[in-house]
Amino acid sequence: MVTVGIEPCITALVKLLPSMYPFTSMFSKHVIAMFIHRQREHPVLVSAITRHTPFVCAGGRSSYHIQKKRCASCGYPASRNRKFNWSIKAKRRKTTGTGRMRHLKVLYRQFKNGFREGTEAKSQKRKSAAPASSGASQ
C-alpha cells in the first residue's frame, strides 16, 4: 500500500489557486495550506435577518468556528449576545444606532411630539383672499 504525502496535494493546489485567489502566487505552500485550513474552520458569516443561524452573523465577519460550534463575535449559539465592557471600540461597533433601528427611530420622532395620536396636522397652505363676487352674475 502506497501512502501519498500532503506535499503533492499542496503542489497541485498551488497550481489551481492563482485562478481562484490571484494573491496566492506571492505566498509559500505552507501559508497557502494554512489559509485553506483557516477557511474551513471559519467560514465567512453573511449578514442576515437574525444572528441565531450558523454561518450567519451580524456584520458579515468570519468568526464562527466550525469545530467549536461557537461564534467568537456574537457568542452564537448562546441565547444572549456576547458582550464585555473592556473595549471601547467594540462597544462603539455594536451599540445602538449601528443597525437599522426599525422601532427606535420611530420612537424618537414620537417622543419629540409628545406621543400624540389621532390628531391631524394643520394645513400649511396659505389662505387665499375670499373670491370677489362679481356684479355681472344676476
Automatic annotation (TrEMBL):
InterPro entries: Ribosomal_eL37, Ribosomal_eL37/eL43, Ribosomal_zn-bd
Superkingdom in the source lineage: Eukaryota
Cellular component, GO annotation: cytosolic large ribosomal subunit
GO BP annotations listed: translation
Pfam families in UniProt: Ribosomal_L37e
Region annotation Disordered: where it falls in the sequence: 117-138
GO molecular function, one term: zinc ion binding
Keywords, alphabetical: Metal-binding, Ribonucleoprotein, Ribosomal protein, RNA-binding, rRNA-binding, Zinc, Zinc-finger
Family note: Belongs to the eukaryotic ribosomal protein eL37 family.
Protein name: 60S ribosomal protein L37
